[in-house]
Amino acid sequence: MAFTRTTAQLAEKLTEKLTGLTDNLTGLTENLTEKHHLSSRSVRTRAGLVGAAALAVTGVVGAAATPAIAAPDGDSRTYALGFVQAMAVGDTIADDVRAQAQAQQRAADAAKKVAAEQAAAERADAAEQAAKQRAAAAEKAAKERAAAKAAEEREAARKERAVAAERAERSAERRAASGYTDPVAGVDTTTTYKQAGASWSSGKHSGIDFPANTGTAVRSVGPGTVVTVGWGGAYGNQIVIRHADGKYTQYAHLSATNVSPGQKVGGGQRIGAVGSTGNSTGPHLHFEARNGAYYGSDINPITYLAAKGVDV
Questions:
Q1: Whole-prediction pTM
Q2: What gap in Å lies between CA 274 and CA 127, rounded to an integer?
Q3: Angle formed at CA 227 by CA 205 and CA 203, multiple of 5 degrees
Q4: Which of the residues 108, 155, 205, 242 has an alpha carbon 20 to 30 A from that of 264?
């Protein structure tokens, strides 16, 4: 009877503890279900395991509390076995819950990592697209600036041509009125009037030069009378013409002459050909305007021709 009372008391205490353990396990299961979204099947499984553990322990304790079922030594072994089984079931459930919670946490961390990587990829893609758009906009702006600059240059060239054409037209009108023209058609001057240099005895150039191929036609700049034709020393073959305004013009370094002294000539009439005779470094026409027929009376030939409506 003493053993039975002792066993009953032990069973009562064990039942109280097991009841507390069962409540704790049930609460833990509900908490994990709420936090980690365990399926209803998992919840039912955990609850079933808790109930099984409670039944197992209750059965063991009940058997231990009934003397007719087993001998005293057998009762103590049965009690110990039931307790160990109940604790083992509880540990297994706790381990299983923790394992599943950890697995769910790992899955959540992996999903978070994937989401972060996807967001980073989206940001990188957006940045790349923005960079492409900026590059395209910059290229478009550069093309527009280039097109605008080209248009401005074309317009400036057009205006320059218009001004040149107008100037040429006015010059032609003045030439027609005065009967004067340039000595070599379509050729720009090179060495300027009064340009300094050791090539000339006075140290300065006394006229202007028109570079052209040997044989190119040389024309009288205006109507007049031929004064000199022949060799002029450093000037090579030369022609000097006196005009109606009392001024003289000289044409030097000629390769050929086509007029003679005393001959009347008109403006634009061919009188000789470009050459490189005398003190010359290459074929060209040396042209002078003078107050007299001889060297040393030179005046600015460009100013003289401009006054006659001739631009050179």
A1: 0.47
A2: 72
A3: 15
A4: 205
Percent over 90 (pLDDT), the chain = 48
Contact 285, 271 (CB under 8 A): no
Token pair belonging to 289: 């305007």
Question: What pLDDT, in 10s, does the model give residues 88-127?
Answer: 666 788 888 888 889 999 999 999 999 999 999 999 999 9
Which backbone phi and psi does 109 adopt, to 5 degrees?
Answer: -65, -40
Residue with tokens 């069962």: 22
Q: What is the pLDDT of residues 19-56, one digit of tens each?
A: 666 666 666 656 655 555 444 444 444 444 444 444 44
In the numeric block, the tokens 């190119």 are attached to: 216
3-state SS string for the chain: CHHHHHHHHHHHHHHHHHHHHHHHHHHHHHHHHHHHCCCHHHHHHHHHHHHHHHHHHHHHHHHHCCCCCCCHHHHHHHHHHHHHHHHHHHHHHHHHHHHHHHHHHHHHHHHHHHHHHHHHHHHHHHHHHHHHHHHHHHHHHHHHHHHHHHHHHHHHHHHHHHHHHHHHHHHHHHHHHHCCCCCCCCCCCCCCCCCECCCCCCCECCCEEEECCCCCEEECCCCEEEEEEEECHHHCEEEEEEECCCCEEEEEEECEECCCCCCEECCCCEEEECECCCCCCCCEEEEEEECCCCCCCEECHHHHHHHCCCCC
Tell me the one-letter amino acid at 238: Q
